[in-house]
Amino acid sequence: MASRARALTITALAVAGLGGPLVWRLTRFERAEEWAIGGGGVALYVSWMAWESRVSVAELGKEEANLDGGSMELAATAKVLLLLGALLGGGVTALWPGLLGIALLVLGIAIRAAGVVTLGEHYSHRIRIPSEVVERGIYGWIRHPAYVGTLIAHAGIPLVFMNPWAAGAWTLAWLPAVVYRTVLEDRALRADPDYADYAQRVKRWIPGVW
């Protein structure tokens, strides 16, 4: 119960803490392209989080898992730092970098959604040992599409807001947090011989590389 309560507390604080900076940032938009790129990026991200919230709600009805090693809370903290950097760190939204950022958001969300939908009810925000190893769809190409997707999507945020603070948070906090969680999850899942065999054939993030 402790880890679940901690996760819920972090989520609530993050939502409350980001609301004010988000409103402040939106009030700073003046040009049409700022509203189109910045506003569009915000709408896309909020819609994505709303879609993913169903997974968080479903977690409340599951047995608590204790395999995360604090990685979920670490990732949540890194994400908040990235978002705060984007909203409060200055920077002026520009058309072409912003469009690239939107493209990365869309690509990342699509990759992550493919992983989530393929696993269905077996997908979890917590590290859990699955009842079966799924190799169909995108899991035939990479083992952790949800992590790859979230990395790509969040790489778009510094471009949408043209913000070096957000870029620094992605590089120094978000990327290491997701790498740590990937390695931790792989270590737990390899206890299953079927997954260990699957891991010999399919790479974590990049086909044929890692």
Largest sheet: none
Rounded radius of gyration (Å): 18 Å
- Determine the fraction of residues in helical runs and give it as a percent range: over 70%
Q: Termini distance? A: 34 Å
The shape is globular
Q: Determine the mean pLDDT.
A: 88
Give the C-level CATH assignment: Mainly Alpha
Q: What's the CATH architecture?
A: Up-down Bundle
Please provide the count of β strands.
0
Number of domains: 1
| Low-pLDDT regions | none
Strand content of the residues, in percent? under 5%
- Give the structural class: mainly alpha
The SSE order reads HHHHHHH
CATH topology: Four Helix Bundle (Hemerythrin (Met), subunit A)
| Distinct helical segment count | 7
Summarize the topology.
Blueprint: H1 2-28, H2 32-59, H3 71-88, H4 95-119, H5 145-161, H6 164-189, H7 193-201
What does this structure look like?
The protein is mostly helical. About 70% of the residues lie in helices and about 0% in strands. The protein has helices at about 1-30, 30-60, 70-90, 95-120, 145-160, 165-190, 195-200. Helix 4 (about 95-120) packs antiparallel against helix 5. The longest helix is centred in the first third of the chain and has 28 residues, at about 30-60. The model has no long low-confidence stretch (mean pLDDT about 90).
